[in-house]
User: Fold these one by one.
Assistant:
Number 1:
Amino acid sequence: MASQIKLRQVDEYRWEIPREGKMRTRGLIFASQKMLPKIRDDQSLQQVANVATLPGIEGASLAMPDIHWGYGFPIGGVAAFNLEEGVVSPGGVGYDINCGVRLLRTHLQRAEVAPRIEELVNALFSNIPSGLGSRRKDLKLTVPTLHEVMRLGAGWAVKKGFGTKEDLAHIEAQGQIPGADPELVSEHAMDRGKDQLGTLGSGNHFVEVGYVLEIYDDQVAGALGLFKDQITVIVHTGSRGLGHQVCDDYIKVMLKAAQKYGIELPDRQLCCAPLSSPEGKQYLAAMAAAANFAFANRQMITHWVRESFEQVLQMGPKDLGLELIYDVAHNIAKIEEHLVNGKKKKVCVHRKGATRAFPPGHPETPAAYQKTGQPVLIPGDMGRYSFVLVGTEQALTETFGSTCHGAGREMSRHMALKTAKGRNIVRELAAQGIIVKGAGRATIDEEISEAYKDVESVVEVAHGARISRKVAKLKPLGVIKG
Amino acid sequence: MTAAFRGPRKAKYRQLSHTADLGLRIWGSTPEELFENAGEALTAVLTDRRRLRLRHIEEITVEAPDLEALLVAWLNHLLYLYDVDAFLGREFKVQGLSPQHLKALARGETYDPQRHESKTAVKAATYHHLEIANLNGGWQATVILDL
């Protein structure tokens, strides 16, 4: 089916799906020639074309180089809609609302930490609940507290002593999406979230201790406080069951709304409502509440990361220097101002498995990064490496300030399990100097390196197309997986 | 996986490959059986179903605009119970089913990481490529899970 989709090469890194049939705009895919056969293999191109049929879409229906088959929107999909006729779609955000990544730097060198990595991984594993249905026994939130978390986001955690004000200045939207209305979040969603704040969950979520392997841009790396062989920590998780429930609740609302407003859907999972409708506004307010829960979640986990380092290395916060570089959301819809056909215009940008990549000088780029551009964090698989990039002017003009978000799976989980069969993945990684601890063997086997595209090939396209710029490459030393 | 070789009429379900996620194909001789088998198929993604004991019964009622949406609502309700009470059903009994309404019992127990295997976490059942069909007098459903 997907192979029937027409694709026209624009340049080395850009491919266009010409506007056809019910499409209201063209599709634009960022990829290299080498990636195409895999992309054509599944239905992700059809999904790019499907998104292009939705009302009020501005610019192209975009896909970042980590594009792969999702449900409704492709993973790696970016689409902006105007506020007048445009729509908002919970399927364009995903079930894990504000799934995202944060990166911490330290004052530590690789040589100091490497011998203690096993202890450190064990401490992280016991301090941060992870795995299937992970919950915190020590922290069960009441409804009023949950409401406060959903209103204040990471700021709630900081107010409670989990982190510093300085942290908030280094989070997308300062860790609080405006307009959150917890009253629009169902009881079911709150039931799921009440003991999941500060938990990692399962699947591809992780906390990773690594080090700076390579620096591509000394000046920018310096501004981000990065140096070679420095120890770093990445946290990757989202809004847990609370977010999943908000998405599910509002997909039901949107299935009805799409009918009510006469929106034709090529796939039910693309169900949506006009941004100007009550249903659309309610979803955005509930989504913001769930997104804030996710920001608070990563903030809490950061606190326990700091505690784990203090415990194991017997050092104080000043010596450790575990400071937040940045925290980005990669499953989100945001109202942003962009230049559309030469005019400043507010649009709702859906980023489904895509990262915001704002340039130097942009008002939403944090003060510390006004000269460098907003940091972009691209985690790879647990056996290879991750990347730090910065946003660019090109991204702002071409992709509504967006870039890739990760490696993207290349193998189904079945295939991954088959590939891992009879092998001891934990031992194989240990032999490469990477200590992995997970709640279940299945998760680790499903997440083997081979199951993912080489994140370097994804980043090369983003860098080559100038929708972001490479700064540094990080290599894992120790990972906790759900 | 052996179920796949027994042919669609006898097998209860089969897992389908999907790059990032996982599909389920479920069979039943009646819509009731289809929903019961769907419950088993979901539990089998999360853990080894055979290790669950029948210690607790959950009464479940869900509603949706049509039969396909009802299947998604049913599976997502089971995920909700798992998130909230760590409850996992091993056996399911449909007590009443219409295209908009389902009443069912789930028998199983609380997930215990010491006793039960942790397999793949599921975020939600989705509407993408969702399908229920009546084939040769039997019923077949396809549903894609977000992992």
Number 2:
Amino acid sequence: MSTDVRPEAEPAPAAAATHPPARPWIDRSALRADGILAAVTVGVLAIPSLLLAIVMTESIQWALSLVVTAAIIGAILLRRTRPVLALAGLTLLAVAHVAMHAWMYPVWFGVLVVLYSVGRFSRWPGRLMGFGLALVASLLAAYWLVVETSVQGFETVVGVLDVLAFLWIPPMLLFSVAILTGWGVAAVDRSTAATQVAQVSLRRADQEEERAALARDMHDVVAHSLAVVIAQANGARYTQDPAAKDASLASIAGTAKEALGDVRLLLAQLRHTEAPDPIASLAGVDALIERMREAGLDVRLEHVGVPVPLPRTADIAAYRILQEALTNALRHGDRDQPVHVRMRGVPLPGGQGGIVVDVHNRVVTALGQQGPGQPGHGVRGMHERARLAGGEAWTGIEDGWFRVRAAFPAGLQ
Amino acid sequence: MIRVLIVDDQALFRGGIRMLIESQPDLTCVGEAADGAQAVRLADEQQPDVVLMDVRMPVLDGISATARIVAARPQSRVLVLTTFDLDEAAARAIRAGASGFILKDAEPELVLASVRTVHAGNEVVAASATRELFKAFGAQRRSAPAAFDALTDRERQIFALAAKGLSNTEIARSEFVSEATVKTHISRILTKLGLRDRVQLVVFAYEHGLTGERA
């Protein structure tokens, strides 16, 4: 089964004949595969054909068997682009075959490949025509069996029913099954392709969101720091107080330095998102924590309860909040103390329940400057993110620990 | 002495602006607030003439704080500080009663001039930038209300010039009248239209298609 979606074939051969064909007759990308298929089909069927050839004495029979073989090969090569036309051609050949009272060549079974292709590569009208041609072909087969094998019994109604039951229904069934198989494969293929498209677009949306979040962070860092630098520099230019000038210069240097650190961190995140683990999901928690450990943070992860699958938006938000909390701990927290991460799954019947992400890290107490000031933009972003994903976040300081707790309902999947 | 209140959630930003304000003999900083709620409280205590107001702040944002401050004390003027020159929040703050907006990275001379201009009320701060702002985020144009018909022809001429952002001096020069006359006309126009100050006049003109440009 090929996974790529091919253009569906022209519905009717008539249309293909009157229209100058814009589409190629041979699908080049599949030429090799179909060539092999034709060779295998003919090769397999050639063995019984050769056995038959031992008893074939008339040269006309030989010629016709070669024509049928060539027709089967041609039809297989056309099966993707003109499946109905290929089937119609074979049916016409079958009419000639029966009219000439030719032998039954096993190579004829190659028609099953073409019938399958009608189901696989054509649309509604093409498939209906395929069934029509299958009906004609099965009647021809039945007629051939009646005539060439001298079946008796046309004199009575029961005899006619016998012929129908034993000589027409089996080929008709066989042909129909071939078309239906192709049809089923086409349907499966289409839904597979649709799923793939959906997955790709979902992944792209995640990446877009991630990029937008990074752009927002980058703007926050750069704009806020530069606004401070500009205000302080202008203030220092205008003030008459020399001590204030000195303090300004110190805060300009400090702000710029901090901003540079933040930008480096964001760029590191950007590089990570370009790395093979771009998808924000709680499934990637271990990798995230590993990265944080590499950056020098002692993270203790604890899973409590049973993991509950979250809706996609909540999954992204939960991951992002955890990432933000750990980044904050790395930036502002006491790095000598471990950071505790607890993922608590609360399953409830009926798709209820949810996940609580709990992060706490020791705040820095000795250095007053790094202390817990007012909530920064990152913390506000966490609340916003949680709310947008249908959850809720709490942040704050408890007994010297900075705590981030975010809860997301499993909700309706 | 113009009494200035500085409102921004970044202490170092406030500090820089404070130094700038304090360096001027005619300006004094009467307080700093880190969020909108503090700003409302301080404005009530300190009765500032001009409030320099950030828009994005925790607890209470600059837009709501502006509305509360001008409602409690109409003679206070609010000058909004923004990061972008086309910031929808600035447009909303002006609708809420702010007298103008300037960029956080504006030249210090412009910041000082804007504080004085807003206080004097004889000119619009960054008139063309304000028009651009309302071109981008303005409401749908409505037809002029009945109050506009109450203006005399002379007042309409002055209105059109003020709506373009011209100062009293410029209007006086182009109309060959004294500045005092222009001032009288302007205050009468504002009263008749029920507007707070000149920037509201610019916004009014823009939103009612009265800018003199053929819309």
